[in-house]
Design brief:
The structure is a single chain. This protein is mainly alpha-helical. It has one domain. The protein is 69% helix and 4% strand. A hairpin with a 2-residue loop joins strand 1 and strand 2. Helix 5 packs antiparallel against helix 7.
């Protein structure tokens, strides 16, 4: 019975993260993604591990504030990180997107390092790293053009919703297993 409750809690929190991520992309306040998601991860880690060092997960706020936009000349300059990769790969949009999201994924993983440090769950974290990075590329480079859906009067992007939902499933499961 405990496993069912755990799965339901992870699913509900993951859906919340998915909606926060996609809501921001639809013109909602950026704080939903930048602060809301790291706050839920930090709360879950604190309840699971009960150590103040998990507050370092809140540093994900800075990572999620970097942006991931790829330039679309002439009107949109993209984010500084997206522009860096776009220029480095000579305008290859797909590769620039994959590299930008991989960079953000690695930085997000760094903010989660307190979990394996405190729990010694390095095996779980090692597996999680590869799956998490693949998830970044999957929803932003490989599975694109999935469309939009309506939620509370906004048109949300399916890929953004799936990315942040699956990210949360991965992060929350890793925290639980650690």
């Amino acid at each position: 019975m405990d496993i069912i409750i755990t799965i339901l809690i992870i699913a509900m929190l993951a859906l919340c993260c998915g909606f926060m991520g996609a809501w921001t992309g639809a013109g909602g306040s950026k704080l939903w993604r930048r602060f809301g998601i790291p706050f839920l991860y930090t709360l879950a880690a604190f309840l699971s591990i009960a150590n103040w060092w998990v507050l370092t997960i809140l540093l994900m706020f800075g990572v999620l504030s970097l942006g991931y936009g790829i330039p679309t000349p002439p009107s949109d300059n993209g984010s500084p990180l997206g522009r860096f990769w776009y220029d480095l790969v000579h305008g290859d949009e797909k590769l620039a997107t994959a590299l930008t999201r991989t960079t953000l994924g690695i930085l997000m993983l760094i903010t989660l390092l307190s979990v394996p440090i405190l729990t010694s769950a390095w095996g779980i974290f090692s597996i999680f790293v590869g799956v998490f990075i693949f998830n970044q590329i999957l929803w932003t480079t490989l599975l694109t053009g999935l469309g939009m859906f309506s939620f509370m009067g906004k048109s949300l992007n399916v890929e953004e919703f799936c990315l942040y939902t699956t990210d949360a499933i991965l992060v929350l499961t890793m925290i639980h297993l650690a």
